[in-house]
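Entry type: protein chain
Record version: 2
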Amino acid sequence: MFRNTARRSTASESVSLHQDQALNTTIFLLKSFGPTGFLLREDGEVGDVRVSLGEPHACTCPAFTKEQEPCKHICWVLLRKFRLPREHEYSFQRGLVDRQILELLHGLHQTKGQQAEDGTLSQAASGPQAGRVCRRPIQAQDVCPICHEALLLEKGQPVSHCRFGCGNNIHISCMQVWAEYQGLSGGADAVKCPLCREDFCSLQLLREQARNAAKLFTGSEREKPNRHLGVRCQGCRLCPVTGKCFKCTVCSYFYLCEDCVKKGSHPQHPLASRTKRMGTWHLVPEDPKDEAPGATSQSADDSIVPAAAQPLPQYVLDRLPTVRVKPGSLLSDVGQQCRICLLEFSLGQRVRTLPCHHKFHADCVDEILRKWNSCPVDGYVLHNRCARRRTGETKPSPSGADANPPGDDLKGLFVPGVALGGRKPAVAPGGPPRSTADADPRTEERQRKEPAGNPKGSSSPNKHGAVTEIRGQPRPDLFVGGRRPEPRHPAVAGPSGTQPQKDGQHLRYKQATHTDRLGQQRNH
């Protein structure tokens, strides 16, 4: 058969761009016109478009009318509906002949695993059961028949299942679009399943599921993808880091923003970077000129991801709030489900709530948190050990204080009877005690002869230095140390008219000599 369009060996730039748009856009399949005609609606758009596969392909969207190239709707049918690999030669042609379309319909391009899965799905859809049926378990490769996206994704869209037909799982949001296209208005009307064409559920039940499922979405999911929630820069203390985020591959929980990296912070270890919150960490080259967009080797990815991913400590995991589902709990409503396994919360199950207000089965989320220190839905970093330290290895305090708590560094400087917290305790009239290491023997003998109740002659050992009282002179201040600072004020004459010397040792010697003379006169 002759072709009406020229055969291509590689995809053009416009087709590659449309393929990217098709893979990153949610499109709903509303109706099929035979094996090659489809009615589509893009998420957020009002109008519908019609796609026809053939020689050549056709679409009613303005982009195809202007360029006459496979648009994102045609690429979506080929990549999502028929699950054609992006590198396959049929995915970027302007049209397909009858033989190629038959190969596409029979799935000859798929692997054996995909063919077995599609056969199981077709068999379940072709054999409806009477009455209410059980829900089919979700497999790893199951897709929604309306948006044709995988069910078990990181974003975890809530699902519902066909209750009176095949029992297959479909996104609740997709079923709302499907019911709107069918023109249903009454709550008692039954919504038809897009797979088996049997009754899926009532419109009233579908609306209740959508209303309860909306409570599973939190405000953190609406944040821009370049805001790294829960991440604090260890240089400028910015939280959360916005834009490009950097992480040390050696130090645990050490993050930096782009401005601090440009200033040369933490140059001793290699860094990894990512732009999106849920993106992959890539090794940062030492020379910024060597970094090219998307030019990261596979070996660098394999070596950097284990170092960049930090597990959540067990003591932090144990402190996360956990509740059990009880009768009458809001968690038991239809539409409330874990966004990891997409199963509803049953009575007696433990439900764990993360700081970003997402709720999961404790058994499902604990297994993930033991490997990754972030929420599996929005990437919120749950624990940052460095961000909770005030001083130490991450950032010194402005006053230059030590990282130890106040009081720990003062244990070795404790003096009995003397407070070190800045307050001056009241001193007895006799003055502070005198050390036995610097005392004169004759003075000690005189003190032993005096009455015990005399406060002026009391003496007690003190290992932190000698402080001697001179009668009639101002009492010196307490000090701790090996050397006493010299007074800066001028000397004041004592009662006897003698001028005190600057040398404390000579002063004590004169006082001791005077006391000894008085003792000799008393003996005579």
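Comment: DSSP finds 13 helices and 17 strands in the chain.
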